[in-house]
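FAQ
Q: What does a multi-component entry look like?
A: The components come first, one per line:
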Amino acid sequence: MLASLALAAAGQGAIVNGWQARPKRRRLAREVTPIKGKLALEDYEPKSMLHVTETQVPRARFPVIDFHTHLSWSARRRQVTEAHNNATPEEVIPIMDRKNLRMMVNLTGGYGKVLEQTINYWQKPHPDRFVVFTEPWFEKITEPGYAQFQADQIVRAQALGARGLKLLKTLGLYLREQVTSGRLVKIDDRRFDPMWEAAGAQRMPVAIHTSDPEAFFLPTDRFNERYEELSAHPDWSFHGKDFPSNLELQEARNRVMARHPGTQFVVLHVGDSENLPYVSELLDRYPNMHVETGARIGELGRQPRASRKFFDKYQDRILFGTDAVPGGNDTPQQIFGEQLYEIYYRFLETEDEYFDYAPAPKPPQGRWRIYGIGLPEKILRKVYYENAERLLGLKR
Ligand SMILES: [Zn+2]
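Then the predicted structure of the entire assembly, as tokens:
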């Protein structure tokens, strides 16, 4: 953990210095032998020759609440009995201070004993810096009376200090009738109705991750714009088998928002960041819907004009989030560290052109680069902290 954080810190500056100034990486030093003039895609690391402005944004202009982080993991696919922390508060806080990151929301706080441990570890000693969300106890779905049990767990979690409810894409894509086998459980399954209602009654916002990039539902072939990402993570593909389509998943989530107007939903990853017209339609339709930016500036930043209009129109409904994971080296776009925040700040605060959306030698989500949207101060304040403060009930 310390090693990976140190690594992230050591890499600081690589982004702000831009391509030309980057030190040669190990990967580049390797001899790549062209075969009859052909170069393997994985070896291709083109450097932009554009002479464009490179603005350094080492600190956010206003204090930031990162609404989407994973400082700890709880159950992912199976039940766990101990919280797994990805870092210590002592490792994280100095980086937060340097980046003007006032607070991190640790969404994956789990349930039961793990939730209690996680709150005691992060939130209790540092209530101004860390907030912990709870998660549903999906393993109990096979038991009679689950619906009421799950609603009661929300009330219990709130009493322990949990500030919201988090749903992984597990709901819709992994959870099955017998937990890991049987038919997939639908997002709008009636058994969850008391849970959504309890979250609303306890004033706990629901952070919900539904579906994934559209390319994950297509064959991993030469036409897939996320070919490299899916090749690196074959288990991220939802093509074929019995998976619902992206639209079916989104629509099931929409029915939940419609059915529970007193519950505030924060739709993670901008919902469907590749389809801002669709997300805009939903924001117009559901006043209890908000969106969060985690791991999607790659998408927002490659359509900067549409994104800028989207931020203008929905400035009261967009929350800053990164999906940061300390030590999350498998997913460079999510590695908690100084570089990650500098990229997000640069995207939101500057009008810089054609820069990397992740601290990595190759763009990890797809072969493109992004453009800043230069938000005015009023919108920046809302996105950085005001909207999150309101939803979390932190208004001072
Ligand atoms: Zn996440």
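Q: Is there any commentary attached?
A: Sometimes. For this entry: Residues 1-29 have pLDDT under 50 and may be disordered.
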